[in-house]
Write a structure and sequence with these properties.
This protein has one domain. 71% of the residues lie in helices and 0% in strands. The protein is globular and about 55 Å long. By secondary structure, the protein is mainly α. The chain contains 12 helices and no strands.
Length: 272
Amino acid sequence: MVTLDPITTTFFRLSLAAVLMTPFLVVRRRLPNHRKLRSPRLFFQLLAAGLLLSGNYGLYIFGLERTGPEASQVMIQIAPMLLLLAGVFVFKESFSSAQWFGFFAFASGLALFFSHHLGDIFIDLNDYGVGLLMVSLAAVCWAGYAIMQKILLQEFTSQETTVAIYWLGTLLFLPFCDFSTLGQLTGTQWALLAFCGLNTIIAYGCFAEALVHIEASRVSATIAVTPLLTVGIVQFIPMAGVTVEPLGVVSVLGALLVVTGSITTAVARKPH
């Protein structure tokens, strides 16, 4: 079956989101204020946010290509945990002992889930290990993007920042795209590509809006359930071309600890 390469897929995700969102904001007169963009500080902050999110998209899909949905979704949970730590060290949010307990539970769960793959990273770095490292770097990029997004929301609305970031990512990936196989895609593949674009608008729009209303360290609570959903779907609904992780008791315990630790850290009561 003909497929799109990761770069072209990512381009379509960002460009479709940008093309669909821009007319909506034009009608509502909510495009980014061009006068603010004359400020070098704001311009470079917005540029940094766009580059970081683009790096997250690109690295994640390359890592996914080398690993699988379950491994990628568990590893990417590093991202919200880094955002939680940023809440403490960047935004000076307080952290309780229960939240630190959740953080160490998360770290232990991550080690347990990937215990049978540690040699792929630290001893004999193979393609799977490279994939895990790429997803880890994608998580770092996402956390950096989230921090910049939180800072930008002091000057821009969530819609202004997201549409600008989508266009930046579109322009960044365009020179590296390969459109030669587009004519050979099936209707199902086109539908999945369209879903990816719509998902980008909904997911990151909601995320940016959430940062407006609550602390950065609280945004991660619902994101933490994603790996359990992914593991459940992949394990119980076989799909052609999708790698299924061999899950033993240790890996299942690790996945549960990752989710429990993430949620505990995000929602535990803060000290007064």
